[in-house]
Design goal:
Layout (H helix, E strand, L loop, with lengths): L2 H11 L4 H8 L3 H9 L6 H11 L3 H7 L8 E5 L3 H14 L4 E5 L2 H10 L4 E5 L7 H11 L4 E6 L5 H5 L5 E4 L4 H7 L14
Parallel strand pairs: 1-2, 1-3, 3-4, 4-5
Helix pairs in contact: 1-3, 1-5, 2-3, 4-5, 6-10, 7-8
């Protein structure tokens, strides 16, 4: 059974709609649709989240998945769930060939980064106990070629943000056009982030 078929079966056994599952794992419903149709596979961290939400052993989903090599990882970190719900579909539209994952807690991001190469990180500057500037430094310690773009509603933070090695700064809310304007400024260009 394919990953998509396995995911759909487990979701339906729980009586969840695609929209309900999407909200539980902080992705757009279209992501769940693509996973179930076989057009895209989630990354390992997302498979772990799906297994928790669906109450199944993670190995069942991992065994059903075949992770394609070379797919860039793009993350969005914001402690506001509403920002994630609005921002993730925009990132998926901007980067249709990437694995896009959202996080509300910095410690989850660090765990993810230790297991996965993060190519591009969109970090909210104010993320609770560990702010985005500190999180940026930790991510760059784990993988120095991570491209970081800071997000904030307050442009006053821009000077502090530049001292971290970030390559961009965006004022919320996100837009596909603003994201694409940042791509030429990435310190480490990433194959697969360009829109086909």
């Amino acid at each position: 059974m394919s990953f998509g078929e396995t995911l759909k079966r487990l979701r339906m056994e729980k009586g969840l709609s695609q929209q309900q599952l999407a909200e539980m794992v902080f992705v757009d419903r279209s992501s769940v649709t693509r996973w179930e149709s076989g057009n895209r596979l989630p990354d390992a961290m997302m498979i772990m989240r799906l297994s928790e939400c669906l109450g199944t052993d993670v190995t069942e989903l991992l065994n059903a998945a075949k992770n394609p090599e070379g797919v860039p990882n793009v993350i969005l970190v914001d402690d506001e769930k509403i920002i994630l719900r609005g921002g993730l579909p925009i990132l998926e539209k901007a980067f249709p060939n990437a694995a896009v994952t959202g996080f509300t807690r910095p410690h989850q991001v660090i765990s993810f980064a230790r297991e996965n190469r993060i190519d591009l990180a969109f970090l909210d500057i104010e993320t609770g106990s560990l702010n985005g500037i500190e999180l940026c430094r930790k991510l760059l310690d784990i993988y120095p070629r991570t491209n970081v773009i800071f997000l904030t509603a307050f442009p006053d933070y821009s000077l502090d943000a530049w001292s971290t090695g970030a390559c961009g700064f965006l004022i919320k809310p996100l837009s596909v056009e603003a994201i694409r304007r940042q791509l030429p400024f990435l310190r480490y260009p990433v194959r697969g982030l360009e829109n086909d």
